[in-house]
Amino acid sequence: MNNFVKFIKRIEYSGLMGVLFGIALTVLTLNLYVQSNAIYMVKVSGKELGYVKGIDEVNKAVERIKQTDGKYVLKDVQIDKCKDGSGKTLNSQEIETRLRKELKLKIPAYIVRVGDVQVAVLASKNDYELLVETLKKRYIPKYDKTISVEINSFKIDENINFTVQYVDAILVEDVDEVAEKIIKGKLVEQTYIVKEGDTIWEISSKFGLSIDQITTYNPKLDLNKIKPGQEIKIVKNEPYFNVEMDLNVVTNEEVPYEVKEVYDKTINKGKQVVKEYGSNGLAEVTKNIKVVNGNVVDETLIASKLIKEPKNKVVVIGTKQSNIVASGMFIRPSRGYISSHFGRRWGRMHEGIDIAAPTGTPIHAADAGRVVFAGWMSGYGKCIMIDHGNGYRTVYGHASKLYVSAGTRVSKGQLIAAVGSTGRSTGPHLHFEIRKNGVPQNPIKYIK
């Protein structure tokens, strides 16, 4: 009987111990769960640095600092459990960076290089990914009425590499500042030796610089007396790397109105009278665009949906014979300064003048005539050619927009395009030519 009682007691004791162990395990599990999900405020000498979720995240950051700088530097660090953490929580890497900055320790940074050239010092790999997204947004061309932009591809030509190094916190750069630096490019200095026949305007155009930029770095240079063999310092921005993008862009664009011609034998030949003024229509246009460093190098029309019909312009054209003949006088087609003159340039003939002006600056017909070409021309980019009769033709190259089409008759001073940098171009400008029987003429001699 006594043995039986002892056996029962052993069972009761074992069961009790099992229950107690289960309770202890549950409490431990709950405690670990609470610790891993609790919100902690990290402080240095009372200054709040941020919230962290889970004590493990805090410990990871603290251990990394101990490994590189010892535990003594952490003597002023406080970690307080919060009853109600309402702020944004940081991960271990983010709180480590804040601790290192506040304690004036070196911080781990991502060094971005193109080949052997250091481009940026960023706080994390995430900052590099943010930099790429920022460059995408900054390099997308701006259109007046953009509906949507789809990025088909984004490519950096050069070899980008990363290394992680501990650096002073002050050296870490802001993503937006790095993006601005990359877009602006690095300053490169070189010496140009003047060749026979060079002019300062041709040299400035060759390097995509203004006359003022050249004189800034060459204060003793006499612009009117350069001679072969003379050295000119050239300082210009060049990209750290080339960014190529392929985009599909949907925009609302104006549809140029057409000109309807009505002939009247009672009006002298060559004279035009506007009977009805035209107005442009509107179309939803989808284009594929190739962009290099923010400059459009090619575009292809994919689709166009008419939203608003253009209203045609009606012009009465005189057919009555008279003694009036074309004067061969033309107006200046756009405002801006002449950045390159007519003549030989880089060993070949520059068949017109370049008028530098901001993108979108209006381009006007230099004289009345018929548009014989409006579209993309190799080298010229978006281009218009107008026949003025008597053997005269004018050419308007590198436009950003064209407002007239082939076959349209235009009046002197009529808006026909906008300044751009399409085709073979170093910056926004109008390339303007005057041709007489197919032979290029110096426009300066004709513009009045």
UniProtKB/TrEMBL annotation:
Keywords: Membrane, Signal, Transmembrane, Transmembrane helix. PROSITE patterns: G5, LYSM. Residues 190-234 form the LysM domain. InterPro entries: Cell_wall_metabolism_enzyme, Dup_hybrid_motif, G5_dom, LysM, LysM_dom_sf, M23ase_b-sheet_dom. It comes from the Bacteria. Residues 240-321 form the G5 domain. GO terms for molecular function: metalloendopeptidase activity. It holds the Pfam family G5. Signal peptide: none annotated. Coiled coil: none annotated. The chain crosses the membrane at residues 12-34. This is Membrane proteins related to metalloendopeptidases. It comes from Thermobrachium celere DSM 8682.
